[in-house]
Each structure stands twice: as structure tokens, then as C-alpha cells.
Amino acid sequence: MPEGHTIHRLATRHRELFAGRRVRVSSPQGRFAEGAKAVDGKVLTDTSAVGKHLLHHYGDDLAVHVHLGLYGKFTDGTGKPPPVVGEVRLRMTGGRRWLDLRGPAACEVLDPMGVDLLRSRLGPDPLNDDSDPARAYEKISRSTRPLASVLLDQSVVAGGGLIFVLETLFRAGIRPTAPARTLTPAAWSSLWTDLRALMKEAVEKGRIDTVHSAHTPEAMRRPPRVDRHGGEVYVYRRTGQPCLICGTPVSSGTLGGRNSYWCEECQS
């Protein structure tokens, strides 16, 4: 599932393509036919992202809400739209630009109350500058669950996925299994600041890199990481490989049904 930085990049991309334009919206697949009809021919005024949720805003206060889930994918281009191939849930065209959406977990039209309800069930998004990290800490400080599991809960922190959470915990020297309520306010403030910085960098670069400059392939004279997720990381999907800082083999296990990775020495 795409992490929050990908959704923010999509919001920016779609704003550049269509904001301020009157767009045609259809649902070749048919599953979004009524929703497409509600916004077809209207002006797309803006786009936004909160956590892993994308919103297309229209001038009459309607918004198309998209959650990509595991299989959702956007494609776009210029010129005449290509022939429909596969199950295209949503097609948008305007100003000789086109956009297709396939396989999302959610694609629906929301009124202002619906948008407010969506935002209210999500925690603060590190990529939104008006987010209040204190909202998240209220829940963190009361939970006996493992810290990694709590931080992955989108109602606590919106947008951070497994890579960001595990890598931020490594950089802070905190074990993923530590009870959430043992995290101090000062430690949470540092975690939040680091998470924001890593996610903002990922928005700019389009990939997740979490290692400090001293631990890059160039600095350490080591081969670049080869992984379908890309990016240079400390522990994520590096089971058994030496920690880039202390050399201890990276450990892994299952935590709340999710794979978890950590260094026994650096996160003791």
C-alpha cells in the first residue's frame, strides 16, 4: 500500500494537471457511475491529501475521495485519452489531459460533512503543516500496545507506513515492541520531527531514504540497496544483514500481523 508521501505527490500532480479546469469525469467500469455523474462537467478547484487518502475538491463543495489500498493505481498523460483497457474505475479529462484510476479500495463522492467525518477519524498527518502532534500523543501515552503498532494505526498518525515507522524508531534508538505509553513527551516530539523530515524528503524525491549522510553507499563504499521499494534504509527488509552502524545482524519478526525489523544493539 502506498505510504502517505505518495498520496501527497499525487495530490500535487493532479492539481498541476487539472486545478481550475472544467473536467469530464466518467466511470468506464461502471462502479463509480453515479459519483462520476455528480461531478462531471464541474471545475476541479483543488486537491488535497490527508494520510493515505486523496481528495479532489469541486466548487460546489463536493469532493471525490480515493483510497488506493493495495491495488489502486493512477495513470495520466496528455493528448487524446487511450482506449480503455482493464477496469477503469474513474476517467478524468480536461485541457487535453487525461487521468485513469484502476483498482482503488475506495472511490466515492463526499459532501462537506463526509469530508469532515473522514478527517476526524484520522490522526494528524506529518505532511500537513497544520497537524497537531499532541492529538497523537494523547493516544500513544494511554496505550499498552507495542509502539510500532500504535504508530501504524492511521487513527493515531495518518500517512506513516511500515517503512517510515520502523526507520524512524531505529533512528531514535527505540525498539518497535516498546509499550507505547513508555514514550516520553520529549521522545515523541523528536520522533514527530524526524518523521516529518523523512516524509517531506520522500515527497520531494519520490522515494524513501532514511540513512544519514555518513551511511550512504558512497560514504560507506558499499553497493546500493537493491529492493523493489528502493531507497537506502537501516533495517526495513534487511533481515540478517549487518546493521549499518554497529554491524549486528538485523532482526525481524511479526508484530500485530505486520513484519517488523530492528537492531538488537542499536535499539536495546
TrEMBL record:
Signal peptide: none annotated. Residues 1-99 form the Formamidopyrimidine-DNA glycosylase catalytic domain. SMART domains: Fapy_DNA_glyco (SM00898), H2TH (SM01232). It is an enzyme of class 4 (lyase). It comes from Virgisporangium ochraceum. InterPro entries: DNA_glyclase_Znf_dom_DNA_BS, FPG_cat, FPG_N, H2TH_FPG, Ribosomal_uS13-like_H2TH, Znf_DNA_glyclase/AP_lyase, Znf_FPG/IleRS. The keyword Amino-acid biosynthesis does not apply. Belongs to the FPG family. The lineage of its organism: Bacteria, Bacillati, Actinomycetota, Actinomycetes, Micromonosporales. It catalyses: 2'-deoxyribonucleotide-(2'-deoxyribose 5'-phosphate)-2'-deoxyribonucleotide-DNA = a 3'-end 2'-deoxyribonucleotide-(2,3-dehydro-2,3-deoxyribose 5'-phosphate)-DNA + a 5'-end 5'-phospho-2'-deoxyribonucleoside-DNA + H(+). Keywords: DNA damage, DNA repair, DNA-binding, Endonuclease, Glycosidase, Hydrolase, Lyase, Metal-binding, Multifunctional enzyme, Nuclease, Zinc, Zinc-finger. This is DNA-(apurinic or apyrimidinic site) lyase. It holds the Pfam family zf-FPG_IleRS. Residues 234-268 form the FPG-type domain. Gene3D superfamilies: 1.10.8.50, MutM-like, N-terminal. The gene is nei_2.
